[in-house]
Write a structure and sequence with these properties.
With 269 residues, this protein is of the alpha/beta class. It has helices at residues 19-29, 57-70, 84-91, 116-120, 122-128, 136-143, 150-164, 207-220, 225-240, and strands at residues 5-13, 33-45, 48-54, 75-78, 99-101, 131-132, 167-171, 180-185, 191-196. The chain binds 3-hydroxy-5-(hydroxymethyl)-2-methylisonicotinaldehyde.
Length: 269
């Protein structure tokens, strides 16, 4: 049986807290097998991004094609996509592969990771993906709505699920208050909510990457979408509570979890 092969299409974060590095750590910790097609290299630390080198679309696709042809992939996780060209060309390759799409636009330190043309191509990926996982500002941008309350977050998620015909997990971390609520909206109009205690920390770099990779890993291991979301949120909580305490800015989480146990490793067999 496959351990759950996750092909991660995303950018490198030299600081190790987000991007490809967070993705690999997450998939590995959850028992999956991580493979990568790197779309961009960022030079960054916990204070911000100083330079980005975009990998040409042909090279991204070459990585993607070789991995799929030989090792195979159960799920594709898409993070920072690098360019509109890569987004368009990748979209043409995804048929038959379940996709978890994290529509990355800016870092927690405020640096742009997608230009306007790239963001314009996100709609196509969201219509292909099994699940898209926008945070509040990303959902505002994708739907053209302004969101200030949980009701508005749910309405926008519902709207996006209807217009794309695919499931949307809207993340409520940018709203004020405790608990933090995430909402899964499906195109059939159903909504599911998860709440978890807000963790008061500056070490929250890479939360979006970690959640999306965790969900992708669960799906790759044969778990249902709801169970994959629940386990990934649980893992994220544990990682948020175990930061190594590095850097002067938005520091990394503790993907290796330190000594903090976490609960629900439920895997379908
Ligand atoms: O969290 C979004 C993200 C995605 N990809 C890369 C990043 C970040 C945030 O810093 O650096 C490469």
């Amino acid at each position: 049986m496959s351990p759950g092969r996750v092909l991660i299409v995303a950018g490198s974060d030299s600081g190790g807290g987000a991007g490809i590095q967070a993705d690999i750590k997450t998939v590995t910790m959850l028992g999956g097998f991580a493979m990568t097609a790197i779309t961009a290299i960022t030079a960054q630390d916990t204070l911000g991004v100083q330079a980005v080198l975009t990998v040409p679309a042909e090279m991204v696709l070459k990585q993607f094609d070789m991995v799929v042809a030989d090792l195979g992939a159960d799920v594709v996780k898409i993070g920072m996509i690098g360019s509109a060209d890569t987004a368009e060309k990748l979209a043409g390759r995804l048929s038959g592969l379940p996709v978890v799409f994290d529509p990355v636009m800016i870092t927690s330190s405020g640096s742009a990771l997608a230009d306007a043309a790239t963001i314009a191509a996100f709609d196509r990926l969201a219509r292909i993906a099994e699940l898209t996982t926008p945070n509040l500002p990303e959902l505002e941008k994708l739907t053209g709505r302004s969101i200030g309350t949980l009701d508005e977050l749910e309405a926008a998620a519902h709207f996006m699920a209807r217009t794309t015909g695919r499931a949307v997990l809207a993340k409520g971390g940018h709203l004020a208050g405790d608990p933090v609520v995430d909402v899964l909206a499906r195109p059939d109009g159903t909504l599911q909510r998860w709440g978890s205690p807000r963790v008061d920390t500056r070490h929250s770099h890479g939360t979006g990457c970690t959640l999306a990779s965790g969900i992708a890993c669960g799906l790759a291991q044969g778990m249902a979408l709801e169970d994959s979301i629940a386990r990934a949120r649980d893992y994220l909580q544990a990682a948020l509570r175990a930061p190594p305490g590095l850097g002067a800015g938005h520091g990394p989480m503790g993907h290796a979890l330190g000594t903090v146990p976490f609960g629900h490793i439920h895997r379908k067999i």
